[in-house]
Amino acid sequence: MKKLVLVLSFTVFFILVTACGVNQESEFGMHEDQNGTRFIDNRKDDRNDRQDRSVRNTTNENPNFPNLTNSPGTTSTTTGVYEDKAREVVKEYSNFEPDEVWINGEQMWVTAHTQNEMSMAETDKEEAMLKERLEKAIPKYDINVKITER
Question: Which stretches does the entry tag as region Disordered (predicted)?
């Protein structure tokens, strides 16, 4: 019985000692650790504005990162500029209707449609000519062209 009372009193003492000193905010700030690293937080404060500006400058340099600007008229990613250019080239320099444009790494996949019925040889010839024009306009990507009949 003495052992049970001793263990129980030690447990209560341990709980009281450890629970009394809980500090919700550390001395380093609510959103930072001792090295100044920012923790992820959904609260908005002035420091987030400065951080967003620095992120915006670095993401515009890489077409694989999203464009974080909120200005109207910008595409969601910087690769959208290349997709729009590919559609423009198909529309302006061919008799085809542009459709889907996909970018995956260094590959660009362009789909165009025609109302005319074409043989396989004609389709291959037109795909090669369209691919050549697209590669001149957008030399950054290895372009694959597919022409389909509607």
Answer: 33-79
Q: What does the pLDDT average to over 104-117? A: 92
CB 113 within 8 A of CB 149: yes
- Residue 69 per-residue DSSP state: -
- The first and second tokens of residue 71, run together, are 């200005």
The answer to whether residue 93 sits within a structural domain is yes
Structure-token pair, residue 83: 């997709």
In a domain, 121, yes or no: yes
How far is Cα 112 from Cα 133, in angstroms, rounded to an integer?
A: 13
Q: Which amino acid is at 41?
A: D
Would residue 11 count as lying in a domain? no
* pLDDT tens-digit readout, 4-61: 888 888 888 878 777 665 555 555 555 555 565 655 555 555 554 555 555 545 445 5
Q: What is the CATH number of the domain that holds 117?
A: 3.30.70.1350
Tally of domains within the chain:
1
> Is there a contact between 113 and 94 (Cβ–Cβ < 8 Å)?
no
Contact 108, 87 (CB under 8 A): no
